[in-house]
């Protein structure tokens, strides 16, 4: 099976070209591909499928040619991945499968159609995700800590926990999943932990973030998670729009938000192409 490997600020993916939706991508196959010792290694798999050929995307075929079929590293299906969309876009353009009209490319996802824009000369790809919807309050439990959080819908569920000054972001143990209220998040949730940071040029606000992603454990970055964090940071600052720089372990992402849109910008890099032996993968 042919594959490519890419990442956005360290959030890495295996990309599988399957234009006509002929691959039976099982959860066990996804888990094996993402295994960092016995497989290729990744936070998730991006299957590259024509929207017209996939039952979950055919309704978007008139708007977007390509559908991003995203799976978490444990094989579970996810609605959205902000970094994944940006890497997916890089793959389509680099392989000649798509040519952005006016620099813009529509991509179908389980959360709807999003727009990607390719920067000129800076390696950046931006994606216009829908404006996050801030919900009610929740809590996350972690290593004896109970942390207040805010539920945010970015097409997938998030719980944003702004840390009190007494809790060190770098010192959090994310080797185990945080606890959360399953009644509030029946399908699981991505949990973001946030600390304030000094001002930086070009941004109204600057924060630090770590994330535990459902189905993937702690990752070096989470695109939709940065959007959720930016929405909460702007709300807490009494703003409805602005630019938020979010530093994750894998680098920096920038979120530009108003009441209608949420632009996520950052690098998207392809690092390898190859072929994997499915027989060896199964073993």
UniProtKB/TrEMBL annotation:
What InterPro entries does UniProt report for this protein, alphabetically?
DAP_epimerase_AS, DAP_epimerase_DapF
E.C. no = 5.1.1.7
Catalytic activity entry = (2S,6S)-2,6-diaminopimelate = meso-2,6-diaminopimelate
- Site entry: Could be important to modulate the pK values of the two catalytic cysteine residues: 158, 213
Which pathway, per its entry? Amino-acid biosynthesis; L-lysine biosynthesis via DAP pathway; DL-2,6-diaminopimelate from LL-2,6-diaminopimelate: step 1/1
**Residues annotated as catalytic:** 81, 222
Give the UniProt keywords, A-Z. Amino-acid biosynthesis, Cytoplasm, Isomerase, Lysine biosynthesis
Q: Which Pfam families match?
A: DAP_epimerase (PF01678)
Instruction: Report the family membership.
Output: Belongs to the diaminopimelate epimerase family.
Q: What does this protein do?
A: Catalyzes the stereoinversion of LL-2,6-diaminopimelate (L,L-DAP) to meso-diaminopimelate (meso-DAP), a precursor of L-lysine and an essential component of the bacterial peptidoglycan.
Name of the protein described by the UniProt record: Diaminopimelate epimerase
């Amino acid at each position: 099976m042919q594959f490519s490997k890419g990442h956005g600020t360290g959030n890495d993916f295996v990309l599988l070209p399957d234009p006509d939706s002929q691959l039976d991508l099982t959860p066990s196959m996804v888990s094996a591909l993402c295994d960092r010792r016995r497989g290729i290694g990744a936070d998730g798999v991006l299957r590259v499928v024509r929207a017209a050929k996939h039952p979950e995307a055919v309704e978007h075929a008139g708007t977007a040619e390509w559908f991003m079929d995203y799976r978490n590293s444990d094989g579970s299906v996810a609605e959205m991945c902000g970094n994944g969309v940006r890497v997916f876009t890089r793959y389509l353009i680099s392989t000649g499968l798509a040519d952005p009209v006016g620099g813009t490319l529509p991509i179908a996802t389980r959360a709807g159609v999003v727009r990607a824009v390719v920067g000129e000369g800076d390696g950046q790809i931006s994606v216009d995700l829908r404006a996050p919807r801030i919900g009610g309050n929740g809590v996350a439990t972690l290593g004896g800590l109970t942390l207040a959080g805010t539920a945010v819908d970015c097409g997938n569920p998030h719980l944003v926990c702004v840390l009190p000054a007494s809790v060190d972001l770098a010192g959090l143990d994310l080797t185990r999943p945080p606890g959360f209220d399953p009644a509030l998040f029946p399908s699981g949730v991505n949990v973001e932990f946030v600390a304030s940071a000094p001002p930086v040029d070009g941004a109204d606000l600057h924060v630090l973030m770590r994330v535990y992603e459902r189905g993937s454990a702690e990752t070096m970055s989470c695109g939709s998670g940065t959007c959720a964090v930016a929405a909460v940071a702007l709300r807490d600052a009494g703003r409805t729009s602005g630019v938020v720089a979010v530093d994750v372990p894998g680098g920096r992402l920038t979120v530009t938000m108003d009441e209608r849109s949420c632009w996520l910008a950052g690098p998207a890099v392809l690092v390898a192409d190859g072929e994997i032996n499915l027989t060896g993968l199964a073993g």
